[in-house]
Amino acid sequence: MPAAGGAAARCVDAVVTIDGRQVLGPVSLVVGPGERWALLGPNGAGKSTLVKILVGLVSPSAGSARVLGFSFRELAARRHMGYLPELFRYPPWLSAAEVLDFHARLLGVPFVTDERDALLARVGLDGRGHDRVRTFSKGMQQRLGLAVALVGDPELVFLDEPTSAMDPIGRHDVAQILQQLKEDGVTVFLTATSCPTWRSSATAWR
């Protein structure tokens, strides 16, 4: 899908005000196709709020945003993007395979067992497809969240603090996944408080 103006994501003077307090902005940015952005900042700086604007979960009080050529409000863009929130929780009684199958149905994409198993293996959960979420550590649940973000081979992936619960091995694995996404031409926008891991993974720092 061609992105308007050559941008995978664009934000112009976006401001978010809650209860009379400005929590974000004004922010303007342009993310080019195939770029890997690492947005760094302390807790409370508004990183997650900005990501939520771009994925259509928060409406800016002022300004505008477009993703893959669509307004951030349009559902059509969501079929071509993946999203790993900073905070998330899957039903503990579901298996990892069921979580992926559910999100594939939400996207309306075909998803066969071999693809699902390959995706789990890609994020370091090989052979764990039938295990319940309640048996997973925080780091394993974050790996599962990353797998969910990659369902449907998205063109643009938003990763909000993707390694916050991971050990050094997990962070290394995520860096390897980012490298593969780069080779596949996928645009990546991630947030972090501070992590040297992203220095070899990002083409733009903000």
What is the end-to-end distance?
26 Å
Unreliably modeled segments: none
Largest sheet: 5 strands, parallel
Specify the structural class.
alpha/beta
Radius of gyration: 17 Å
Please characterize this protein's 3D structure.
By secondary structure, the chain is an alpha/beta fold. It has five helices and nine strands, in the order E-E-E-H-E-E-E-H-H-H-E-H-E-E. The chain has a five-stranded parallel β-sheet with strand order 6-7-8-3-9, with helices on both faces. Strands 2-1-4-5 form a four-stranded antiparallel β-sheet, with helices on one face. It starts with 8 loop residues before the first strand and ends with a strand.
Task: Describe what is shown at a glance.
The chain has 206 residues and is α/β, with parallel strands linked by helices.
List its traits.
single chain; 206 residues; five-stranded parallel β-sheet; four-stranded antiparallel β-sheet; globular
Task: Give the SSE map.
Elements: E1 9-18, E2 21-31, E3 36-40, H1 47-54, E4 62-67, E5 70-71, E6 81-84, H2 96-107, H3 113-122, H4 138-149, E7 156-160, H5 168-183, E8 187-192, E9 204-205
